[in-house]
Amino acid sequence: MEARVAVTGIGIIINNIIKYEQLQNLYSPNIIKTIHQIPEIDSISKREMRRLSNQTCYALHAAVNAYSMAGKPDTKNTGIFFTLTHSSTTLLCEFHDYLIKFGPRMASPNAFSNSVTNAPLAAVSNFLKIKKGGITLVSNKPGGLDALNTAANAILNNEYSNCIVGSSEEYSEIVESAYNKCGLYKNNKPDYLPYPQSKYVYGVPISEGSVFIMLESIENLEFKKIKPLCYIIPENHISDHNYNTIISGAAAGPQDKHELVQLKKLTQNNNISNIIFPKIFFGESFALSPLLSVAMGISILNNKMDIPQYQLNKELGISSNKSTKTKNILITASTANGYSSILKLNKQ
Amino acid sequence: MNEVWVTGIGIISSLGKGLVIHEKAIKEGATGIRNFPVFDDAETGNFKCGIISEEHIPQSINESASNRANLILDIALQEALRQAGLKGPLNADIYIGSTLGNMHGGSLYYNEILKNNDPDTRLLKNFLSFSITEFIAEKNKISGKQYSISTACASGNTSIGYAFKAIKNGLCDTAIAGGFDPLCPFMVAGFNSLLLVSKENCRPFDIDRKGLNPGEGAAILILENSISAKRRNIKPLAKITGFGQILEAYHHTRANPNGNGIKETVSSALIDAFGKIKPVDHIHFHGTATQANDTAEYNGLNRIYGNALKQIPACSTKPMTGHTFGAAGAIAAVFSIISVLKGIIPATLFTEKIDNEFGNLNILKKSSTGNKINSVITTALGFGGETSALVIEKANNGS
């Protein structure tokens, strides 16, 4: 049997979804949007929340929910793995504004210290009292999978008995305009499938939010008699290619050529019934995207979410999703220069 | 028995380029810190900084805004690969720590927006630290997993630690590990806003210490599984034998002054290396010369060793290179390897009167040679409660 770890909790905030049970709402039309209101978090005052970046607030919301769903385990032996693409652009710009207008003497210490890359991890660690260890991975699109793979391996190597793994990305106009200038953005959801019905390829809208996932060792689970949501098999332990569903990181952008190569190989060599492109539902959220894919996969495995229906390009070897029940899902993510990561979800 | 060997080292800092230069600088007690106009204001804009000489990076900070990090990291990597007898195509995992990436490129981009100019997107090309990791992987034809790690000022130390664990746990045979950060006005202003920057040369553990001097640099270690290194007939420079890491969950910038985080981290690293807590031959502190850091570090080590701490010569080399942020932990690891290889204890420059609270501290005003150093512990702390520590040991049958 492949080495695996259990998923015991998920927390999520994206578009207008603030908890895992609402993920089916991703299929609603015109869903991709920025988060208008961050739900309050018990024990954190509004004043304290105002001091933090949106990115950190989203992370706290999702982490607290994942931790709670997992039964609030003892954090004595818990690790934390976090990933993002860029730290809070809003606070970085705020800091620069003061620096440029008033010089170094008036630069804001709060904006600086809350815009550093590991600020969200530090806030989650502080709030949940997770002290055993952990890192922030600064990464492009495969970041979420690398974080999950690293955490899963750490549990399998007995470094931790459980890990909380998350990502948080914050929308800003600066980021949107920068990607727009690079030709990677379109301001409404494409009305065709990204893979590719047409020869034109456009970007998907940029979104924001956070996902945290609680992972636990199988031994811990048996001791606590908790039923997991599903299991994760990290990349280096995948030996059984028994998945019939792939959730792909394609976003109708430059990384897609690598995703297509990977998808073609997978569909040729395995019995694939479904390929899902979640970014057309939740937008482009960089390092967060793979964790959203994983959340979606977990929801599908637990029959909380349907497999979406659309026609697929013949190059991929299948013409449409068959919506058959699935017990194994492969998650993929790639970058424009060909770096990629995968991870398998399993529901026994 | 499977060990994690250091088979190649590369380093660049304000002291110069290369291992030999840095060994010479330690022996001579040299410093690379000088007055530098970080901001335009003549009165307030000058800071004591450890900036890499124009001899190695001819472009100014503004001219190299979009790729300064790439340049310095690649210089360090080339030296390390040469020393290890490796070149691409190469299958190795990459673990690189940084706090900034090419942040200055992002700053200049934003400045253009504020002036209502059309900014050049090339300034953002290497803005994010993972793009620099991708750059060195592509340039040097390195395939394998890539990890850009950010644990604030502990990034370099943590990255080496994670690479060490990956090899120890059989996830890879070869790893490229280290850290980098270029000098950036944003970072200087940020630390200055927190009142952590000194306008004088920094004085770690001094009773009148006023803060850090910002610096830039990069350091890379090639780590290999000893079994696969032996197949290549390569001898180790040193061994990494232990790693510890803790999140203090105390404050978003300051370390806990009682030193509990460092105590847990160092204890964990020592147990990882030796199976128990025991004295080492030398301690290489993070020693940034801020009030909070030095107090926390001293208290942590003092809680482990007590009076025995007096017998362990220690140092901070921040007065030599400046605080190089993401590179700091990796540069300290290189200095620690020089210590085990050559028996040199670096001086802690400019410290005149040790703080009365650090009664068991044993630091030197001048470097000392001819010492028998078999083991070093090197520590690093960062914002957000990050603490990490590495145990570095002399290699048997080493070079």
Characterise the protein shown here.
The complex is a heterodimer of chains A (348) and B (399). By secondary structure, chain A is of the alpha/beta class. Chain A has eleven helices and ten strands. In chain A, strands 3-2-4-5-1-6-10-9-7-8 form a ten-stranded mixed β-sheet, sandwiched between helices. In chain A, α2 runs parallel beside α5. Chain A is globular, with a radius of gyration of 20 Å. Chain B is globular. The interface between A and B is large, with 55 and 62 residues. β3 (133-138) of chain A pairs antiparallel with β8 (146-150) of chain B.
Quick rundown:
Chain A has 11 helices and 10 strands.
Topology:
The complex is a heterodimer of chains A (348) and B (399).
Chain A: E1 5-14, H1 46-51, H2 54-69, E2 78-84, H3 89-102, H4 109-113, H5 119-128, E3 133-138, H6 143-156, E4 162-169, H7 173-181, E5 209-216, H8 218-224, E6 230-234, E7 245-247, H9 256-269, E8 274-276, H10 279-282, H11 289-301, E9 328-334, E10 340-346
Parallel strand pairs in A: 2-3, 2-4, 7-8, 7-9
Antiparallel strand pairs in A: 1-5, 1-6, 4-5, 6-10, 9-10
Chain B: E1 4-13, E2 16-17, H1 19-28, E3 33-37, E4 46-50, H2 68-84, E5 90-91, E6 93-97, H3 103-114, H4 129-139, E7 142-143, E8 146-150, H5 155-168, E9 174-181, H6 185-193, E10 217-225, H7 226-231, E11 238-247, H8 260-274, E12 282-284, H9 291-305, E13 314-315, H10 318-321, H11 328-342, E14 375-382, E15 386-393
Parallel strand pairs in B: 5-7, 6-8, 6-9, 12-13, 12-14
Antiparallel strand pairs in B: 1-2, 1-10, 1-11, 3-4, 9-10, 11-15, 14-15
Helix pairs in contact in B: 2-4, 5-11, 8-9
